[in-house]
Amino acid sequence: MNSFYSYTISELEDLFINLGYKKFNASQVYDWVYKKLELDFSNMSNISKDLRTYLESNLSLDLPKIIVKEESSDSTIKYLFEFEDLSKVEGVLMHHPYGTSFCISSQVGCNMGCSFCASGLKKKTRNLEASEMVSMIMKAMLDANERISHIVIMGTGEPLDNYDNVIKFMKIINAPKGLEIGIRHITLSTCGLVPKIFDLAEENLGINLAISLHAPTNELRSTLMPINKAYKIEEIIEAVKYYFDKTGRRITFEYLLLEGINDSRLYADKLADLIKNLNAYVNLIPYNHVDEFSYKTSKNSNEFYDELKKRGINVTLRHKMGDDIDAACGQLRSKVK
Ligand code: SAH
């Protein structure tokens, strides 16, 4: 059975028109599911009995199971979801003064092999479907009994390595008649798949783009992130310039501070030189511990921050959330078999 969550509103309208129903029935059903969170077609009282019967026998509103749920002292909740084929992925719900965000995975496992990231310890077994990503949001909202206002595609997997599904997912959750998550409230983080950054610019969606840079030189970056052997920093810079020109959205460079590796003043200066004309942001990320790796959290983050500030770079230091339950950046991987 097809998942209801795989339909954009215009696809649902086409489906209903082809079946002889009305276009506005699509908005009605979207409203029940995404606004009222009603997951039983038979309760959709303003829908004809005939259409309800069709929906019940042809579209599924099933959600993944939550097999682990952990709540951190800062109220961050980490979920491990399980899909029908027993694939498992994590999602993290975070509370901020400005709303509730959900960090979503885009793949089951990850093939990018970044040397500091726990998610890459399990190789990719498959991409997540757009509908599966939508369904995790629905499940988390129902479980936590609150609406999600912001989405960060920063969980397990490389979203631009699952391009079509991720684009469709963003269109579904952005629809005003659906979950209505504002386009400016959606952030996609990539390790730098250059051709796909150009493609993303062409979509003209206006989402926030974050680039996991982590080093300002190719020499260093290639030792940390294998993807740098395929796409060099200069190519990433070209791609993000294009993205900015096309969409007007400012880019964020994520920079993980690893003690003794990339956290010296010299690297802060190199980073400032690299991006000074881009009108971009830098988000400094404290390294979160992963047992298998020997990296250490930098003690130099304030100096690094100050140096960038002094050089006129727009910089923020990321606030850690959920690290007591291994829900922080880079710690996601299912420990359950
Ligand atoms: N594949 C995408 C999205 C997933 S990673 C990407 O590379 O951007 C999300 C963010 O967490 C990235 O910036 C990643 O580099 C960072 N990260 C990975 N391991 C980390 C760790 N151990 N501590 C802190 N951040 C980490």
Description of the structure:
- 42% of the residues are buried.
- The protein is built from ten helices and 14 strands.
- The mean pLDDT is 95.
- It is 33% helix and 20% strand.
- The radius of gyration is 21 Å and the shape is globular.
- The longest helix has 15 residues.
- It folds into two domains: 59 residues, DNA polymerase, domain 1; 261 residues, Aldolase class I (TIM Barrel), CATH 3.20.20.70.
- It has 337 residues and is α/β, with parallel strands linked by helices.
- A hairpin with a 5-residue loop joins strand 4 and strand 5.
- The strands form three sheets. The chain has a ten-stranded mixed sheet, covered by helices on one side. A two-stranded parallel ribbon has the order 1-2.
- The site of S-adenosyl-L-homocysteine (SAH) has 18 residues, from strand 10 and strand 12.
